[in-house]
């Protein structure tokens, strides 16, 4: 269900903008990598689940400003 919601939301947003943006998928992939790496370092899934979106938000801000 979560994948459906993400896919339908991206389809709606990108469909209205008439562009295909691959940055969304790459940031999702980086978020999964951040979550995996954080989970390996601290050995706690819930801490990794809290820190990975913050890291992705910071990365998105850096990309937007750059």
What's the structural blueprint in terms of helices and strands?
Blueprint: H1 2-17, H2 23-42, H3 45-65
Helix pairs in contact: 2-3
Question: Which tags fit this structure?
Answer:
66 residues; mainly alpha
Description:
This protein has 66 residues and is mostly helical. It has helices at residues 2-17, 23-42, 45-65. The model has no long low-confidence stretch (mean pLDDT 82).
Rg: 14 Å
Uncertain stretches: none
Structural class: mainly alpha
Strand content: under 5%
Indicate the percent of residues in helices: over 70%
Give, in order, the helices and strands.
Answer: HHH
- The tally of strands reads 0
Please give the alpha-carbon distance between the first and last residues.
34 Å
Described by the principal axes of the CA atoms, the overall outline is: globular
Q: What is the number of helical segments per DSSP (H or I, 4+ residues)?
A: 3
Question: Roughly what is the average pLDDT, rounded to an integer?
Answer: 82
Strand count, sense and closure of the main sheet?
none
Summarize the structure.
With 66 residues, the protein is an all-alpha fold. The chain contains 3 helices and no strands.
